[in-house]
């Protein structure tokens, strides 16, 4: 059995965003059960110079969407440019669900071969704005930017929740949304 680009990108992002959603549900329940204001967790950071939980979720979602490699002339999907925007648990769940809907609409044939094509990346999501980086392949973009950034922000979100006392373990990170698919 061989692995396709879809198997190693879109399918992985779908599964992990479902796990992230489950972690977020546990985090909200923990706040409610312990009479903690949601802001105590949503605004928490691992370090003073790091983004809060809300932004970690938003960035994990953004990198997962970028990981579909659907853009002909690749540009990062634009954000509103304000990573510090406050979001509620419901709004963050909405971001995750929107990304899941997008990723579930991607078919393997839509991205077949994208890992071999050269890409031009505009950091702002808009051509001519931000930094432009030209890469020889989508593979380089995936392995050196998208994967590391997605896993960094996904793990940071989990770690913020864990640090604040949400009862999470490794299985929540790996299987929060259910058992492994086979």
Verbal overview:
It is a single chain. The protein is mainly α. The protein has a single domain, classed as dinb family like domain (Four Helix Bundle (Hemerythrin (Met), subunit A), Up-down Bundle), CATH 1.20.120. The chain has helices spanning 5-8, 10-33, 38-42, 53-66, 89-105, 108-111, 138-164, 170-175, and strands at 119-122, 132-135. Helix 4 runs antiparallel to helix 7 (138-164). It is globular, with a radius of gyration of 17 Å. The two termini are 13 Å apart. 31% of the residues are buried. The mean pLDDT is 88.
CATH topology: Four Helix Bundle (Hemerythrin (Met), subunit A)
* Helix amount: 55-70%
User: Quick check: average pLDDT?
Assistant: 88
What assembly state would you assign to the polypeptide chains in this entry?
A: single chain
Biggest β-sheet strands, sense, barrel = 2 strands, antiparallel
Distance between the ends: 13 Å
Amount of beta strand: under 5%
Radius of gyration: 17 Å
CATH 4th-level superfamily: dinb family like domain
Q: Please work out how many helical segments DSSP would assign.
A: 8
Uncertain residue segments: none
What is the topology?
Elements: H1 5-8, H2 10-33, H3 38-42, H4 53-66, H5 89-105, H6 108-111, E1 119-122, E2 132-135, H7 138-164, H8 170-175
Protein name: Helix-turn-helix-domain containing protein type
């Amino acid at each position: 059995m061989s692995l396709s680009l879809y198997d190693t990108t879109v399918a992985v992002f779908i599964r992990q965003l479902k796990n992230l959603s489950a972690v977020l549900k546990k985090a909200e329940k923990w706040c409610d059960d312990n009479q903690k204001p949601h802001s105590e967790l949503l605004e928490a950071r691992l370090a003073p110079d790091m983004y809060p939980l809300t932004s970690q979720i938003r960035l994990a979602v953004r990198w997962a969407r970028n990981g579909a490699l659907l853009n002909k002339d690749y540009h990062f999907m634009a954000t509103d440019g304000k990573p510090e925007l406050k979001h509620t648990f419901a709004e963050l769940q909405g971001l995750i669900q929107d990304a899941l809907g997008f990723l579930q609409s991607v078919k393997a044939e839509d991205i077949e071969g994208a890992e071999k094509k050269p890409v031009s990346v505009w950091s702002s999501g808009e051509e001519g704005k931000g930094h432009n980086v030209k890469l020889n392949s989508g593979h380089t973009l995936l392995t050196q930017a998208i994967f590391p950034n997605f896993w960094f922000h996904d793990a940071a979100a989990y770690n913020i929740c864990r640090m604040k006392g949400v009862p999470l373990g490794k299985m929540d990170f790996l299987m929060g949304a259910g058992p492994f698919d086979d």
